[in-house]
């Protein structure tokens, strides 16, 4: 199995630009093609990457030459992104697009049509079933149990990075029902090359990380709603009592309350278990547009 040296990243938001950063700086991929259909987002993603590289060089963690080289290996690509990735011969594409099943299914269908059959197709989704995404790569009319479908869908894998990607040490690998052992191993090697520790989860709602994290956050919101303790005391309990870097309410704001609610709904609907019922306060805050840090207001004001 040869290491992945050229990759494509779909989506230049917080996660996609973070993934491009670790691929260029840590994995030293010779080419990182960063694609976003929105030119403004693409430029913002590049600016973010440049700022972190400059900060690392400023702190003496890397040399200025390292920072310049890493930035030079990242190539922004616009609407012909998949064609460009095919021309460059990328070994893997990591998708970090918004968390919408139909959008991801359409991206993976296009990726499987436009790229060599050996290209690994990874999704950074935090909650959508990798098995459903993999099924979208099978061309219409091809039976899901055929050898062609097994090859096509077998190269799809979940590669779940954590926010902020440059800082968080973990990547959670998710094996869909169709994922081949070779795909899983290549993805693992890539994550290790990016400087990450790796865990593996089966494709169940929330995988391991969010099946544990979201109910914890949801319970904290229920605790607040029930008046058990104030916002500050809930967060202080976990920060000072358990050494968490952020309390659960601050973390919910950081992740985005809409994202938390979506994931909690995936757990609730995907398992049918009432223990995952989303907090009514969380639902109401999202209804109000108070989605956390990115929106200027959540449990805290920004
Ligand atoms: N991109 C790159 N670097 C960033 C960053 C970003 N978006 N945000 C912070 N950093 C860097 C800072 O530049 C700083 O780097 P330095 O050491 O070179 O100065 C370093 O992180 C520490 O930042 P700060 O000093 O500003 O602040 P803190 O010490 O409070 O750390 C934190 C910030 C790393 C975000 C820390 O509070 C933390 O670990 N919080 C918990 C984060 C967490 O749990 N993430 C997972 C969320 S769940 C998820 O992603 C899964 C999804 O499916 C929901």
TrEMBL record:
Record-annotated site: Important for catalytic activity: 160
TM region positions: none
Positions bound to NAD(+): 11-16, 36, 99, 104, 126, 163, 294
Pfam family, one: 3HCDH
Biological-process GO terms, alphabetical: fatty acid metabolic process
Residues in 3-hydroxyacyl-CoA dehydrogenase C-terminal domain copies: 206-302
Record has NAD as a keyword: yes
InterPro entries reported for this sequence: 3-OHacyl-CoA_DH, 3-OHacyl-CoA_DH_NAD-bd, 3HC_DH_C, 6-PGluconate_DH-like_C_sf, 6PGD_dom2, NAD(P)-bd_dom_sf
UniProt keyword terms in alphabetical order: NAD, Oxidoreductase
Residue stretches in coiled coil: none
NAD found in the keyword field: yes
Domain 3-hydroxyacyl-CoA dehydrogenase NAD binding: 6-203
GO-annotated molecular function: NAD+ binding; oxidoreductase activity, acting on the CH-OH group of donors, NAD or NADP as acceptor
Family label: Belongs to the 3-hydroxyacyl-CoA dehydrogenase family.
Protein's name in the database: 3-hydroxyacyl-CoA dehydrogenase
The species this protein was found in: Pterulicium gracile
